[in-house]
Amino acid sequence: MNIWPGKPYPLGATWDGAGVNFALFSENATAVDLCLFHVADPGRETSRFRLTEHTAQVWHAYLPHARPGQLYGYRVHGPYEPHAGHRFNPAKLLLDPYAKAIAGEFGAEDTLFGYVAGQGEEDLLRDDRDNCAAVPKCVVIDQAFSWDDDAPLRTPWDKTLIYELHVKGFTAHHPEVPMEHRGTFSGLASPAVLDYLRSLGVTAVELMPVHQALTERRLADLGLTNYWGYNSIGYFSPDARFCSTGLVGQQVAEFKSMVRTLHREGIEVILDVVYNHTGEGGRLGPTICFRGIDNAAYYRLRESERRRYVDYTGCGNTLNVMHPRVLQLIMDSLRYWVLEMHVDGFRFDLASALARELHDVDRLGAFFDIIHQDPVLSQVKLIAEPWDLGEGGYQVGNFPVLWAEWNAKYRDTVRRFWKGDRGQVSDLAYRLTGSSDLYEKSGRRPYASINFVTAHDGYTLRDLVSYEQKHNHANGEQNRDGHNDNLSWNCGAEGPTDDPRILALRGRQVRNFLATMIVSHGVPMIVAGDELGRTQKGNNNAYCQDNELSWMDWNLDEAQRHTLQFARSVIRLFHEHPVLRRQRFFRGTTRHGSQAKDITWFRPDAGEMSDQDWSNPDTRCLGAQLAGDAIDEVDERGERLVDDTLLILLNARSETVSFRLPNNHDRCKWELILDTRASNGDPPAGSAYDDETFPLEDHSLAVFRLHDA
Q: Which domain holds residue 75?
């Protein structure tokens, strides 16, 4: 096969209809070999070409007769000098960082490591054994796909409700998904799943990582796997484990088909992306891609000892976003997923690590500057996990405009309030109204706050109210992993119980959390299964549990069916009432001739909350009246929004409170429209009240609507 010079751009393997251009960046390499493999025998190298063209630190070539489906990899030559930060080893076949698809699985052989283990300081002696048979191969793909009329949905932030799920776990046991599609992209786009998502009322699915990932050697030795996938090794490739066809490169088309189908149902697709570190781990990890291509360029190395990595992520390494080519990799990847794969946004894992210029987190760093001026990425949903594990990494409230954040302060405050902790109501008021204390000064709106109580990382909502201690023994770390969550509340007994009183209280607390998220201003995020009362049996770090412990169980008992009915009811309120989805922060003042302030806070005696009430650590019961005629916003047609006035009552006490409903003076009645006392949330028929007292039971939330008598 002839080889032509080719071009240094675009990076990766690009088929133009006649051949394939290959381009690989390496600043410090001395030579690069392109290796080809046949689909029928991927463990045997069929051809090898030395890339003689080297332009602007990019090694490139063009193969005029190569076609989609061609398997390939690289061998990169250079010094093996760990103390200088270089770990080149041409005996190791390497993945292309820009590979659009990856075929095969990683083996467990020692040949994956670039050093000879057990020799003195372990990583100083290069291992010259070939690893070809143990490494997956990159795939040249044909990017063509029939998108029909698919276009970005651009659902406004104030109308967005996020549903976080794992592609495999969501359908692995779904009885109405065909067996061959369970746990895959096509399974997520199956009619039964679409019906469920539509009936639930979510507007966006946030997919846990779908980039090609790998399992750490430590987990493999324990017979476990990195189920969550926060161990990326291919930032352009959909993970082959979620592909139903099993054909080389077909995961690309299957992912696109899933996105197109979800879009037709009005559901956006947000990707959880992990650009803060890679799956190669620390200095004793395998040499699979970045480490062997140019370790000193791709990773943050300690200045005093370049053999070791700077680790802000707790995963062994940190990508070097200060290097322009690494920053380009991230930006090219993000644009690829938007332009070619049609996704609607991203949630950035440990986003603070991306903002570190030298050591400190810089909210105006190059990463943010480039995204803000990018005509593509500045128009999609951008969500930060606003912390990392380094010093000063907790940055909740400090990300710039255009960004929303996982609001951990919301999570902690809401948990503490319903747990019954003292002194929470003042902070709770901020969290219920969009966290203006965190976001208003920087010019952001309430929807900068992603409101959540649970996420994939931690207890499920049911386990949050059922366990005080984590039960992670199945993870193989003697229950040392994860964190003891002192914000959880065991409602009466640790773990499973048949006590009807305890079960009733737990169910009510689950409903309280779901309802609080929905009536709070900001963007609610629900974890898949929380609306069903899913349990992980107290495991709050199930990252390595690719089994029934993590998968959705669709065989629902009566209590779970009621919880689902409640979730649907409260989400329906979110969509029906614009006053719950305000685009601006409350002012506590009257607007546009309204007779009521936009928000009024009440004590149980119907008096307005005073400074003394807010500062009283024993205040655990309060109400908020949201004036529907004071929204001060317009809809898509330019018409001013007007809604019903709503009254939200919250009681975290351990006893029933007689709550006097506010006097409305308008010959209107308060109609009870949601009550967490009921297992399904439905209030009794004819629940209309004048300005009289309402028995707000212990640990309950109620929502009233003001309507004409």
A: 12-139
Residues 6+ apart with CB under 8 A from 525: 161, 162, 163, 164, 206, 406, 450, 451, 452, 455, 517
For residue 436, CA distances in Å to 397, 427, 442, 505, 659 come to: 10, 11, 10, 32, 28
Tell me which of 138-147, 478-487, 523-532 is least confident: 478-487
* Sequence-ordered list of residues with C-beta below 8 angstroms from that of 334, at least 6 positions apart, any chain: 273, 346, 371, 377
Read off the DSSP letter of residue 676. T
- Give me 607's structure tokens: 């008096």
**Rg over CA atoms, the chain:** 27
Ranges 114-128, 205-219, 450-464: which has the least confidence: 114-128
Pair type for strands 268-273 and 345-348: parallel
Tokens of 227: 């189920």
Among residues 296, 233, 269, the alpha carbon closest in space to that of 154 is found at 269
Q: What CA–CA distance (Å, rounded) separates 454 from 457?
A: 8
Is residue 290 classed as helix, strand or coil in its secondary structure?
helix
Count: domains in the chain? 2
Report the phi/psi class of residue 469: left, alpha or beta, with left for phi > 0 and alpha for psi in -120 to 50.
Answer: beta
Residue 286 lies in a domain: no
The two three-digit tokens of residue 355, written as one number:
């903002």
Q: What is the CATH number of the domain that holds 85?
A: 2.60.40.10
* DSSP secondary structure code for residue 251 in this structure: H
Extract the tokens encoding 505.
């209280």
Please, are residues 395 and 363 in contact by the beta-carbon 8 Å criterion? yes
Mind listing the pLDDT tens digit for each residue in 472-491? 999 999 999 998 766 666 78
Q: How far is CA 383 from CA 167, 251, 262, in A?
A: 19, 25, 20
Which of 116, 139, 162 terminates a domain? The answer is: 139
CA atoms of 124 and 307, how far apart (whole Å): 9
* Tokens coding 52: 């003689």
pTM for the model: 0.97
Q: Tokens 């302030």 correspond to what residue? A: 597
DSSP of 43-84, one letter per residue? Answer: EEEEEEEE--EEETTEEEEEETT--TT-EEEEEEE--EEGGG
Q: What do you get for the CA distance between the two ends of the chain, in Å?
A: 85
Residue 298 lies in a domain: no
List the catalytic residues: 349, 385
The single-letter code of the amino acid at 357 is: E
Task: Say what the pLDDT of residue 668 is.
Answer: 82
What phi and psi, each to the nearest 5 degrees, are found at residue 320? -90, 80
Q: What residues form DSSP beta bridges with 77?
A: 31
682: domain CATH number is: 2.60.40.1180
Q: Which of 114, 139, 164 is the last residue of a domain?
A: 139
Using omega within 30 degrees of 0 as the cis cutoff, is the peptide bond preceding 10 cis? yes
Assess if residue 443 is contained within a domain. Answer: no
Residue 464: closest CA among 520, 521, 507, 435: 507
| pLDDT band with cut points at 50, 70 and 90 for residue 665 | low
CA 678/CA 463 separation, integer angstroms = 20
Residue 649 placed within a domain: yes
